[in-house]
Amino acid sequence: MMLDKDRHHDCNQNAKNSATFGSEIMDTNQDTLLFRFASKSLKYFLLVLFGIAIAYVLSSGLGILQIIPILLYILQQFLLPLGIILLCLITTVVIIESLR
Fold first, then answer.
1. Closest residue by Cα to residue 88 from 50, 49, 53, 45
2. Is the pLDDT of residue 74 over 50?
3. Alpha helix (H) ranges present in the chain?
4. Does the pTM of the predicted model rise above 0.70?
5. Residue 40: which of 92, 97, 86 has the closest Cα?
6. Are 70 and 100 within 8 A, CB to CB?
7. pLDDT score of 93 more than 80
8. Please, are residues 68 and 60 in contact by the beta-carbon 8 Å criterion?
9. Do 26 and 55 reside in the same domain of the chain?
10. 50 and 84 share a domain?
């Protein structure tokens, strides 16, 4: 009977040690603020591109061709530089996360 109590105590001790080890792992695997910012920025950037693609398809399909130069201007003047900045941000996040 004494052996069963010792074995039960050892199992509880191992469970406590693994829980402590697991919490240490969770602390290091949490996303950084920069990673969350980069992922949200990428999400909204892609949503804007998707919206512009839908507007382009609808305007050309419905025959409203006056909006196409406006969409191209927005792409060239605003979204291209933002895309380059976002690419640099994502590259920075990848390097920082790999060093962490």
1. 45
2. yes
3. 2-28, 33-62, 67-74, 80-99
4. no
5. 86
6. no
7. yes
8. yes
9. no
10. yes
